[in-house]
Amino acid sequence: MAILQAWFMDDVNVNPQLPHHLNPNEFVSPEYLAALGVLHWKLNPDKYEEDEELEKIRANRGYNYMDLLDLCPEKVENYEQKLKNFYTEHIHADEEIRYCLEGSGYFDIRDKDDRWIRIWIKAGDLIILPAGIYHRFTLDTSNYIKLMRLFVGEPVWTAFNRPQEEHPARRNYMISFGQKMGMPLKAH
Questions:
Q1: What is the domain range of residue 122?
Q2: Do the domain assignments include residue 146?
Q3: N or C: more exposed end of the chain, with fewer CB within 10 A?
Q4: What is the CATH number of the domain that holds 103?
Q5: Which GO terms describe its cellular component (predicted)?
């Protein structure tokens, strides 16, 4: 099973599609991500339509809605603006579930010390970000990703841009995961 690649980011504010490794690199373990509430599975994207493991995950977590999104300049209207919106730091009231079928991109999340962690998802990575975690998304330099988006019930696309410390999802996240990390996340 391939391990999800994640690392602490530098604070250089140039092209978000670059890896932004620290010098020297400082990688983040799957256990550290799990302590923040991030879940990951490595699946076979070539058989997603009849994947028993995917069906089991969907059934266990109640994901009854699914759609596919091709994100690239050729297939998305207002591509640059959409990418800019995805890269604005935000939370959601529900989990964010994405299964990468082709291509690659970056989810960035905040840790307990408010540092950015970059998670590189590639074909086969199914990732779940908990409701209330500060995050953002961008493509890498490949400029292409095909994602399966999963939801419980009808899809809700609402992003709540930071700061959202009083949002119920953020408060619940802090109770559930802030304490597990040893201290609450700082307010922005």
A1: 38-178
A2: yes
A3: N
A4: 2.60.120.10
A5: cytoplasm; nucleus; plasma membrane
